[in-house]
Amino acid sequence: GQCMRVVKNGGPFAIFTDWRQLSTTIDAVQVAGLVYRGIVPWNKTESARPAKGRFRAQCEYVAWGSFGPMEEQSEEYMPGFFTYRVNPAEKDHVTGKPLALMKDILEIVRPGGTVLDPFMGSGTTGEAAMAKGMDFIGIEQDPSYVEIARKKIYKANGSVIIRKGEMNQTPLFGSVA
Question: For a Cys staple, 134 with which of 13, 37, 129, 176, CB 3.0–4.6 Å?
Answer without folding.
Answer: 129
